[in-house]
Design a protein that fits this description.
- A hairpin with a 4-residue loop joins strand 9 and strand 10.
- The protein folds into 2 domains: about 190 residues, Fructose-1,6-Bisphosphatase, subunit A, domain 1 (Fructose-1,6-Bisphosphatase, Chain A, domain 1, 2-Layer Sandwich), CATH 3.30.540.10; about 120 residues, D-Maltodextrin-Binding Protein, domain 2 (3-Layer(aba) Sandwich).
- Strands 4-3-5-6-7-8-9-10 form an 8-stranded mixed beta sheet, with helices on both faces. It has a 6-stranded mixed beta sheet with strand order 12-11-13-18-15-16.
- The chain is α+β, with helices and mostly antiparallel strands.
- It contains 8 helices and 18 strands.
- Helix 1 runs antiparallel to helix 2 and helix 2 packs antiparallel against helix 3.
- The chain binds 6-O-phosphono-alpha-D-fructofuranose.
- The site of 6-O-phosphono-alpha-D-fructofuranose has 9 residues, from helix 6.
């Protein structure tokens, strides 16, 4: 047996490849790689493990509920939103290659260093998406997006307002019945599961592809009367064609189900959010990169989400994503 041949033994699981070994192995594919990017993924992994522990212990540690303040979005901040945000800032803040950090929880991006000071990347995240579900133990998640930095950071907001096509990596960590990291660096989608006994994200799937043919839609139908006509026409058509509905109300959990089983996720414009509710830079774009890398489609009204030119950090967009066959069933009824 050659030295690098993977050993297999019926008594030892074959998924002993960790996130760290996976990222380092990918790094060898790039001769000029410095390891800076790997360090960023390592920081996200450490933050994810820490947040997973705090989410699981939330009720025991009495950190459920709100802090009584609102974030920049005007949304009530949960205690764990603040905790998760601080954990990510702490873990990422120590990485010398990060120029700018931007969070859903903070009004302005945080400039750590310029390009000439070694800042090569910008990291954007929603620290704990779906946190209003924490008290009922529904899956919540961290969504992250990594962009290259511009050299002088003339304006921190402009630096992070790059099209989703510019992302060098994106993914999410789902704190659900298990803690799962889904990651893409533009070469397909990999999935890792946290083995809490050894504190490591183990590699369980590579080259994830969204299955076709799942006639399931995911939308908050309570707002249906507010949706533009095309969406309402689609729902009527779906009801008449035997579709089922699944909606968790936590984007990471809903999108993960789409990634695993197919179907379509929709957050249309509503009266309360005429431009859509979900944020482009740290929710729609990272999810769109994952979905497209897994063979799916992601649109915001008539535009491919990844091609939208952002104009501000907390910009919102409508979201339509999922398997191509199911997305097209919606798109054909929308204008443009
Ligand atoms: P609604 C959670 O608050 C969130 O930002 C996403 O995780 C989720 O997809 C969406 O909002 C749910 O919104 O209006 O259906 O409660």
């Amino acid at each position: 047996m050659t030295d690098d041949a993977p050993r297999d033994h019926p008594l030892v699981p074959d998924n002993l490849a960790s996130l760290q070994s996976h990222v380092l192995a990918e790094e060898t594919l790039f001769p000029n790689a410095t390891g800076d990017f790997s360090w960023i993924i390592s920081a996200i992994s450490l933050a994810g493990k820490t947040i997973a522990n705090k989410v699981r212990r939330a009720r025991l540690d009495d950190v459920l509920g709100s802090v009584g303040t609102e974030n920049v979005q005007g949304e009530t901040q949960q205690k764990l939103d603040v905790i998760a945000n601080e954990v990510l800032l702490r873990c990422l803040g120590s990485r010398g290659s990060i120029a700018v950090i931007a969070s859903e929880e903070d009004e302005e991006p945080l400039i750590l260093r310029t390009g000439s000071e070694g800042g090569k990347y910008c990291v954007l995240f929603d620290p704990l998406d779906g946190s209003s579900n924490l008290d009922i133990a529904v899956g919540v998640g961290t969504i992250f997006s990594v962009l290259r930095n511009d050299s002088e950071i003339a304006n921190s907001e402009r630096t992070v307002c790059q099209k989703g096509l510019q992302q060098v990596a994106a993914g999410y960590i789902l704190y659900g019945s298990s803690t799962i990291m889904v990651l893409t660096t533009g070469n397909g989608v990999d999935m890792f599961v946290l083995d809490m006994a050894i504190g490591s994200f183990l590699h369980v799937k590579s080259g994830l592809q969204i299955p076709p043919g799942n006639h399931t839609y995911s939308v908050n139908e309570a707002y249906a009367e507010q949706f533009p006509t095309g969406y309402r026409t689609y729902l009527q058509w779906a009801h008449e064609n035997g579709y089922s509905s699944r909606y968790i109300g936590s984007m990471v959990a809903d999108v993960h189900r789409i990634l695993m089983r197919g179907g379509v996720f929709i957050y249309p414009p509503t009266r309360r959010n005429p431009g859509g509710k979900l944020r482009l830079l740290y929710e729609a774009n990272p999810m769109a990169m994952v979905i497209e890398q897994a063979g799916g489609l992601a649109f915001s009204e008539g535009e491919r989400t990844l091609e939208i030119q952002p104009t501000e950090l907390h910009q919102r967009v409508p979201v339509l994503l999922g398997s191509p066959d199911e997305v097209e069933c919606v798109r054909r009824l929308l204008p443009g």
